[in-house]
Every structure is written in structure tokens, then in C-alpha cells.
Amino acid sequence: xxxxxxxxxxxxxxxxxxxxxxxxxxxxxxxxxxxxxxxxxxxxxxxxxxxxxxxxxxxxxxxxxxxxxxxxxxxxxxxxxxxxxxxxxxxxxxxxxxxxxxxxxxxxxxxxxxxxxxxxxxxxxxxxxxxxxxxxxxxxxxxxxxxxxxxxxxxxxxxxxxxxxxxxxxxxxxxxxxxxxxxxxxxxxxxxxxxxxxxxxxxxxxxxxxxxxx
Length: 214
Known about the structure:
This protein is α+β, with helices and mostly antiparallel strands and 214 residues long.
């Protein structure tokens, strides 16, 4: 089984869950081997080079694959999907959904996603527009940035995602400290940021996703 990993802080609880719960060493090793950016993972998934991954919402719309009710959800602010104020429009090459979201919201400027965006926001929040927050203000709905999609071994990933959603994942301080050091983001900001992210796609989240994909 090949699962591709987006190595952003917003999925840290999910990967920590896998590390604790899954006994298959080969599977866990393959996750670290297949680390990549969202836009590259989208392409590899569509080429069926990987079995499952969190796929950008915009790319989850069409295709002969399974879609699970788990994703990366922002309930209001997210701090890691931004547009820089007073800048020329520029897409983030690592993104798919966020570039289109900025256009849909008619927000012009440089799009920045991921941990680098969170780092910048923490240092200078007034210089950036939070796209998830703008979506929530306009539509009164959470925004779904990605969805877990599956090419093969659907039952395995269905069980895995259900188990994850049923648990409360506590992240040890030493892990947050390590991410703080490698991403240059304060520990307090990482803890605060993770409270902004949820994963279950229920009625509101699915309605929001449908609205965006239309």
C-alpha cells in the first residue's frame, strides 16, 4: 500500500495516529518515503502511482476513485492559506485549491500556503488575508482544503479514517518542540493553529465543498 504524505503541521495529528496505531512497518516507512507537496501528490494520485492521499479539494471533484468523509477543514481562520496584501497576483506552485479559492473570492495578490504561510502570518498577521476566514465570512460555512481519496484498498482506509475520527489525538510536547524548531514557528502558535483545523466532513463541510466545486 502506498500512501503519500503532505508534510504540513495541519496533518500532524493524523500521522501521529498512524505511527501509534498501525503495526505494519513497511506501510509507515512508505508514508515517509512518499512525502511531497499537494500539487505533486495530486498528479501522482491521478496517475495511480499512489493508492491514497489527502487530495486538494479542486482535484477531488472528478475521477474514478473513492472519496472518504475526512479532509482538512478550516472553521473560520486557518492562518496557513493566505494572500499577501498589496502584492501582484502570483499562484503558489505547491497549491491547487488555494489558487482557485483566491480567484473565486476575487482577492488579488500572492498566494502562500502551508507551514511557510503560517510562519509569515505569525510574524506579521496584518500583511496577509486569511482565505478560509474570507470564505466563512461570505458563505457562513467552513472551508474544505483537501479530502482523503483512495485508488486501492478502500476498506482499509475507510476503517483507518473512522478510527482516527473517533479518537482525540494528544501531541507530545517534544514533537511540537521539534516542529517548532524545524519550521521556525513558536510552540504556542503551533498549539493555537492546530485548534483551527478539523477533519470530519459532515453535512456543513460537504455542502461547503459542493458550493466551492460548483
